[in-house]
Amino acid sequence: MPPIQIALVGVGKIVRDQHLPAIAKNGDYRLIAAASRHGTVDGIDNFKSIEAMLEAVPAIDAVSLCMPPQYRYEAARTALEAGKHVFLEKPPGATLSEVADLEALAASKGLSLFASWHSRYAPAVEAARSFLAATTIRDVKIVWKEDVRQWHPNQEWIWAAGGLGIFDPGINALSIVTHILPRPVFITAATLEFPENRDAPIAATIAFTDADKLAVSAEFDWRQTGKQSWDIIAQTSAGEMVLSEGGAKLSIDGKIVHEEPEQEYPMLYKRFAEIIRAKTSDVDLAPLRHVADAFMLGRRKFVEAFHD
Amino acid sequence: MPPIQIALVGVGKIVRDQHLPAIAKNGDYRLIAAASRHGTVDGIDNFKSIEAMLEAVPAIDAVSLCMPPQYRYEAARTALEAGKHVFLEKPPGATLSEVADLEALAASKGLSLFASWHSRYAPAVEAARSFLAATTIRDVKIVWKEDVRQWHPNQEWIWAAGGLGIFDPGINALSIVTHILPRPVFITAATLEFPENRDAPIAATIAFTDADKLAVSAEFDWRQTGKQSWDIIAQTSAGEMVLSEGGAKLSIDGKIVHEEPEQEYPMLYKRFAEIIRAKTSDVDLAPLRHVADAFMLGRRKFVEAFHD
């Protein structure tokens, strides 16, 4: 099978750290172009805009869109209209409605659209899912606490309206939880803490339940210094399950049962090639829908101003 | 065909004003029971809870759920589990995710779920839709301004988190707009004004667009005294279209072309009977999805405290 000729749009930190190495070691792809206002990729043709790139390089089969979510719709639409398959970094868009529109467009054109959730491909996620499927779950706690100054230094877009604030990392937790739990959950209450000088929340507490009244709680906080936590803890009939380090490590009753080096982006590109070959799409909006639900249902609380 | 034996849950103002008269004059239905913590309906069996009612009256085929949205999921799930068709007042739930869950449950049980949007059945809405389908639209303005003290006096739930505030009437506008425009729209920017003593917004301004870059703006305001406005105004290649009075009246270039007495709830019950006979559901979440998108993407602004 000939390789998928792929192009990158929005060349920033995540592209250099993750997308380029993942594409380089996957024989299903050949990277042939990139478009970015500021960044470039060595050894291939670079353009200032996706329009210029698609015009100049008709051989492109697929594009990966890695710019901030507020700009993703336009680029995705342009690519789909030009007949290209589209990989969307997370979150897939600034609104649910625009992604629904892209999904319909991809379907009408017979193209593949991939709303990627990299944390779902963390090494221990499938093992956690299998473990939970075979137990009775009593309750679930999600603790996602990190230091925004360390992970997102001076990223102004993340604090703007639509930048999602603490939900930018929190949506990773939601992408895992919506995959490993046996039934769909929904939010019953939430509190969002906004720094008085910012348009996006710095912390949130959320209560979920499901059709069987399972209690699921989440604490998201960007003010965590010292030890960082990306943990999902379930009390079950088969013991306490701790899925930690963002899905990398699984312990049952304190004993490590699964720990492997992470391969999230290689797995994402494997999945994207699969759906292109199978002529399908993979667009699960549940994680973003929970974020929207939290903003709609949640109580707003104002806290101390945040300065980088 | 035997009539659909129907029951009402949550007997308040909207039930007395709209549901009871609409059911009474529709031969497709026989109203046989009601459940409500406070209200009762004369001439039928009344219960304090939906559980007690379903237990005592197995002949019920369908239920209409008219309590505040925060309590609707539980009742809907109970009814579907008991094998009953379900009519949901607007908005269909407190979150998108819970309604998605109900939709899946109804489908798995072969039951009809109806997420009703009464304003879509306002008399001139279909005429507006037909008019717009035959023109080129230049821009659209939605102006939904009413006096909350007149329409929602002392309704505390509407100001609570999850009560939606100004989006409770605003979602009526969104239910019309999503029906009459030729392509799906999505929000690009929004500002939500919260009274400093309330958890729900009193006003909002929203900018939408669509795949063809149509400019659609909305102004929602609950502080309007004097003349009330529920208008959708479109500049088109065939003149200025004004859909006013919440969808009741249509004018083109100032000339009234459609004005009839409203029949919104009779039409809703007609539609519900249709989907029950056809064994389908009718759940369009687009209006609620836009509200969630506005909360997620919108900038929050704080304004003067509001007291009833």
UniProtKB/TrEMBL annotation, chains A, B:
Alphabetical list of InterPro entries matching this protein: Gfo/Idh/MocA-like_OxRdtase_N, Gfo/Idh/MocA_oxidrdct_glycsds, NAD(P)-bd_dom_sf
Domain Gfo/Idh/MocA-like oxidoreductase N-terminal: start-end pairs: 4-113
Domain of life: Bacteria
GO molecular function annotation: nucleotide binding
Gene3D superfamilies assigned to the protein according to its UniProt record, in alphabetical order: Dihydrodipicolinate Reductase, domain 2, NAD(P)-binding Rossmann-like Domain
A Pfam family annotated for this UniProt entry: GFO_IDH_MocA
PANTHER family: BCDNA.GH03377 (PTHR43818), DEHYDROGENASE (PTHR43818:SF7)
Name this protein carries in UniProt: Gfo/Idh/MocA family oxidoreductase
Organism the protein comes from: Ensifer oleiphilus
